[in-house]
Write a structure and sequence with these properties.
Elements (H helix, E strand, L loop, with lengths): L1 H5 L1 H12 L7 H17 L4 H12 L8 H9 L9 H17 L24 H12 L4 H13 L7 H13 L3 H14 L2 H17 L16 H19 L8 H7 L6 H9 L22
Helix pairs in contact: 2-3, 2-6, 3-4, 3-8, 3-10, 7-8, 8-9, 8-10, 9-10, 10-11, 11-12, 12-14
């Protein structure tokens, strides 16, 4: 179990990306979730044995904790001074996931039905329907739903497999400072055969894991293990995280801003100017309907 806890971030995202699809255990669900778990595990470059262990824990052991009432029952059975096992820790992680998913209903997007993310009952599993609901939820900038759509488009569950679209969705999350999305984006590029971009985003993910949560926007000069391109990309994304996401409390992705900031040919200086002066909205002129551009960039 030590390997699982040492890879907490990847395990948590495995739980999240499968539980968001349903909490009902069916043969079709198990088959599809095996594909999603492989994608997440390989994106994090986990050993195959660890991926298989995660599958067992998520699809078998933790499937008994699928309702919010189950979570409350586990918590109410505990007493001060109890000795807890590894399974207790795993149940806590699953409980965290349930709470996280139920928060998706708290959104300004009136097209989102609160019941879509209500885990007080067992939810039917139909991948196309679930993907459609997640797509609607993502439309207002919901990061978790956007990231999940990136995964589904990468593997072809609930939607037609489309790596180009998957890359767009995962890049939106990555530029909003989501570390896990950087790993998924790198793997989506790898699946598409673009080694250069895959290597860049894996490098970015490594930088983010090392520095982003510490609030560091500039890589220390004595850290010379990274390419200049990755360092410059990190500086842009970490600045967006600190100076826009946190400064303006914008948890939802500003799709229009991300589209503008990733335009090809835009200099590093201009990108930083738009970040520093986000409230002026000058960047909106870049994506005006009359402007013609190719959707590429970093």
């Amino acid at each position: 179990m030590k390997d699982i806890f040492l890879n907490y971030e990847s395990f948590y995202n495995m739980l999240l990306s499968t539980t968001i699809m349903s909490n009902s255990k069916t043969p079709e669900y198990d088959s599809d979730m095996n594909v999603i778990l492989d994608f997440v595990g390989k994106a994090y470059k986990l050993d195959e044995k660890i991926i298989e262990k995660c599958k067992q824990l998520i699809l078998e052991d933790l499937s008994s904790l699928s309702l919010t009432n189950d979570q409350l029952a586990v918590y109410s059975a505990r007493a001060y001074g109890d000795t807890y096992s590894d399974n207790d820790v795993l149940f806590d992680i699953k409980g965290d996931v349930l709470i996280k998913l139920e928060s998706l209903s708290d959104t300004r997007n009136t097209d989102v039905n609160k019941g879509w993310f209500d885990y007080s009952h067992y939810k039917t599993y139909q991948p196309n329907v679930r993907a459609a609901k997640l797509d609607i939820t993502s439309s207002s900038g919901n990061l978790l739903a956007t990231r999940q759509m990136g995964i589904l488009l990468s593997v072809g569950i609930g939607v037609e497999k489309n790596l180009d679209e998957a890359i767009i969705r995962l890049k939106q999350c990555t530029y909003w400072g989501d570390i896990s999305a950087a790993y998924f984006l790198a793997y989506a590029y790898e699946l598409s055969g673009d080694k250069k971009q895959s290597d860049l985003y894996y490098e970015l993910a490594t930088l983010e894991k090392k520095y982003l949560n510490k609030g560091i926007t500039m890589i220390p000069e004595n850290d010379e293990h990274y390419s200049q391109t990755a360092i410059e990309l990190y500086a842009i994304i970490s600045s967006i995280k600190q100076d826009i996401v946190y400064a303006y409390n914008l948890q939802g992705i500003d799709f229009s801003f991300v589209e503008a900031i990733t335009l090809p040919g835009l200099s590093k200086e201009k990108r930083m100017y738009f970040i520093d002066n986000y409230e002026k909205k000058e960047w909106k002129t870049l994506t005006n309907a009359s402007a013609v551009h190719t959707r590429v960039g970093f």
